From TrEMBL:
Top-level taxon: Bacteria
Domain Acyltransferase positions: 15-349
Upper lineage: Bacteria, Pseudomonadati, Bacteroidota, Sphingobacteriia, Sphingobacteriales
Family per similarity comment: Belongs to the acyltransferase 3 family.
Subcellular localization(s) per the UniProt record: Cell membrane
Protein name per its UniProtKB record: Acyltransferase 3 domain-containing protein
Pfam family, one: Acyl_transf_3
Key words of the record: Cell membrane, Membrane, Transmembrane, Transmembrane helix
Annotated InterPro entries: Acyl_transf_3_dom
GO molecular function, one term: O-acetyltransferase activity
Membrane topology: Multi-pass membrane protein
GO biological process, one term: enterobacterial common antigen biosynthetic process
TM spans (from-to): 49-73, 94-119, 139-161, 168-190, 196-215, 227-248, 260-278, 294-312, 324-350
GO CC annotation terms, alphabetical: plasma membrane
Amino acid sequence: MQNLVTNTPAKRNYDFIDTIRCIAMIFIVSEHSIYFERTDFHPTGYKELFYIATIQLSKFGTICFFMLAGFLIGDKFVDYTPGQYLKRRVNNTIWPWLFWSLLFVFEPNIDALISYHTLIPHYDGTSYWLVLWDRLETTYLYTIYWFIPNFLFCITLLLIFKRFLYNYWFGAVLFLFVIFYTVNIYYAWIPSGHTIAILGFVFFLWLGAQFNKNWEKVNSWMNGTSVWLWWALSILTLLFGVAEIKLLKQLNNNDPYNSLRISNVLFSMACFFLLLKIRDFKLIGFLKPRETTFGIYLIHYIFVVFLLSRIFNPFHIDVDHLPFIVLFLYQILRFSIVYFLTLWIVMLINKTRFKWLVGR
């Protein structure tokens, strides 16, 4: 079988990739900031539909990230051997990820040191080490820190099968895993959370590589389409996503917002092409996407979990009884605090010798 990896076009400038990645990260931060635990929030009627829509609107980021990363793989194979590329990715991502994820794990210890001058928090009737193990498991399997290990696994898998990178049969096999996970959400043959769907995202990495290899054709095709087509498809698939989430909640599904729902796969694709069609977002340059996006991913969740509660808990806000418009403003406020504080901190770190902590 022909190895098409070596036939990848010469390196080109894809500034729009950084722009789309920045926008996707903004929506990822939004999703985490405006989400309320199901035990704390029981909306009904139009308020429930609005809340579901705001979450669904933010759900395209994860799949977009895999496609964007796959888009860049072909060019990187020109500059590096597969082994060099993987080593470079690990060096640039694993150490910043390890630092911030461990900071998240040991935040209770830091809080205990500040509040009670002891490094070991006290848990009534429970061994600290059992609690620590639970925090490690939760952090690396069920929080945003799942992404880097899964991402590196996906890249490694493509490197192992690099001779088939541009083979459509290989892509079809990877797509079957996506289908399996979308159906598994309903039947739970295996744990259905997208954060532990190890093989569920490799297809999107592969798909991004196909877009890169066939970029001239893809770009020409996109130029022949109307932006209104992609707006319409994005809105229709958004509504489809809301309907599927509502259905999963009625079925008492334990993960109705799963990123691998068929509706979200379609929504993510529509949003990807919409952003690809618009492409030029001049204001995004102010956010310095290439310098800040990875750092925002690493840090923002710490603020979501530990800062927002400290800010708002003293006010005893009952989100169930907030008027519609107040709920919307409350969501915007939570997002703004997390995003802009994280952005500011990342920009500050980037000006120091510790800028490796926020990677690239």
